[in-house]
Design a protein that fits this description.
The protein is an alpha/beta fold. It folds into two domains: 173 residues, ATPase, nucleotide binding domain (Nucleotidyltransferase, domain 5, 2-Layer Sandwich); 180 residues, ATPase, nucleotide binding domain (Nucleotidyltransferase, domain 5). It is 38% helix and 20% strand. The strands form two sheets. Strands 5-4-3-2-1-6-8-7 form an eight-stranded mixed sheet, sandwiched between helices. It has a five-stranded mixed sheet with strand order 11-10-9-12-13, with helices on both faces. α1 crosses α3 and α6 packs across α16. The radius of gyration is 22 Å and the shape is globular. It binds adenosine monophosphate (AMP). The site of adenosine monophosphate (AMP) has 12 residues, from α11 and α13.
Length: 412
């Protein structure tokens, strides 16, 4: 008897994150890992839930120069570790679903064409998501490919919060504030509904603070506004992205400095944010540890923008019942949470320093009118649940790897 498995893929510019689940019943995670430095000196890291040793190994750069090569390395590992298992569905994290996709969807040739058409909407992310899907289709022609969108959760936003003040034709053509990190917001608001249902039913701001960062106003479990806009460049400053910027700065760079448009794009996406301000690193742990004036200034800019957005989003919600921190920085940095909350007493936030230092579930005092929580996010489980349910709704046959596609001989 074979075990049906679901593979979850998150394809980035030089990385392929994966998670593997047994989906015979409720999804059970079996492994998770990453192939990083694709196209450079690739390396595979994976951890297993069962009593299998963790893996960290360098890969041959000739074999792993693209997502297909990276997926080959992942499959080699999976086949070796779970010889009786069969991957029946692959769930993909896709950054942009445009105005069309408000829910996960089975990837057909038409869907893939639409995702490709959306590349200009998220030029730094979407091409890699599409190539991840193509690599998985080639590796598993019989598995159900499912796309899950970072924009989908925000499709509930009212017009006044998802439009720009442009002639209306632009809105009709899809130039809107989409919002991203929706898979994380879906998971966190679901968790909040489970652990604190009364707060979740009210007015909630979620701060997803990872290498990418955004915030979302959630009312009764539905997104009503977010800090990101047309692309994942807007809103908060991030590891390497500038976040909110006056478009006039971009005109100035193009017209006065005569910088090529690609250069400006590279600057705003990959050389700005915490990295640009500090001149040191995009990584918050490194900045916190460094203690240089530049690192501290970058952190001060970062926390000031987050605090500002708490106020803006609370105004949109007409008040605040809970603030939730999530993702790498939100879950793990007492300093960032404390700096953000430092001047938010007026809104009803009274942080408990000890609870904050311990990254407890609730980090406010018992008397604090607004509850501040730390909720670890899990975007992969949202994807696997969607893939499993679409797979079960369709042909539930547990198909084997096609014999000619076994990758055990692949040298990686
Ligand atoms: P993510 O994209 O969610 O994996 O988050 C990555 C970010 O989280 C990086 O900037 C890390 O430095 C940051 N991070 C992870 N752990 C910590 C920690 N203990 N303190 C501060 N930042 C952290």
């Amino acid at each position: 008897m074979t075990t049906p498995l679901a593979l979850v893929l998150n394809a980035g510019s030089s990385s392929l994150k994966f998670a593997l689940y047994d989906i015979a019943a409720a999804p059970v995670e079996r492994a998770r890992g990453i192939v990083e430095r694709i196209g450079g000196a690739p390396r595979l890291k994976a951890a297993f839930r069962a009593d299998l040793p963790s893996v960290a190994r360098d890969l041959a750069s000739e074999a792993v120069h693209d997502h297909a090569g990276a997926l080959g390395a992942v499959l080699f590992l999976i086949e070796a570790s779970f010889p009786d298992a069969r991957i029946v569905t692959v769930g993909h994290r896709v950054v942009h679903g445009g105005t069309t996709y408000a829910a996960p969807i089975v990837v057909t040739p038409e869907v893939l064409a639409e995702l490709t058409r959306l590349i200009p909407f998220a030029p730094i992310h979407q091409p890699h998501n599409v190539s991840g899907i193509e690599a998985a289709q080639a590796a598993f022609p019989d598995a159900l490919q499912v796309a899950c969108f970072d924009t989908a959760f925000h499709r509930t936003q009212p017009w006044v919060n998802d439009t720009y003040a442009l002639p209306p034709d632009y809105y009709a053509r899809g130039v809107r504030r989409y919002g991203f990190h929706g898979l994380s917001y879906e998971y966190v608001s679901g968790e909040l509904a489970r652990i604190a249902p009364e707060r979740a039913a009210g007015r909630v701001v979620i701060a997803h603070l990872g290498n990418g960062a955004s915030m979302c106003a959630v009312e009764g479990g539905r997104s009503i506004s977010s800090t990101m806009g047309f692309t994942p460049l807007d809103g908060l400053p991030m590891g390497t992205r500038c976040g909110q910027i006056d478009p006039g700065v971009i005109f100035y760079m193009l017209a006065e400095e005569e910088r090529p448009i690609d250069d400006v794009q590279t600057l705003l996406y990959t050389e700005s944010g915490l990295l640009g301000l500090s001149g040191l690193s995009n990584d918050m742990r490194t900045l916190e540890a460094s203690g240089t004036a530049e690192a501290d200034a970058a952190i001060a800019y970062y926390t000031a923008r987050i605090r500002e957005q708490v106020g803006r989003l609370a105004a949109t919600l007409g008040g605040l019942d809970a603030l939730v921190f999530t993702a790498g920085i939100g879950e793990n940095s007492p300093r960032i949470r404390a700096e953000v909350c430092e001047r938010l007493g007026w809104i009803g936030i009274e942080l408990d320093p000890e609870r904050n230092a311990a990254s407890a579930e609730v980090i406010t005092t018992s008397a604090s009118p607004v509850e501040v929580r730390v909720v670890p996010t899990d975007e992969e489980i949202v994807i696997v649940r969607a893939a499993k349910s679409l797979w079960e709704a369709g042909d539930a046959a547990c198909r084997p790897f096609p014999p000619d596609r076994r990758l055990s001989d692949t040298k990686v």
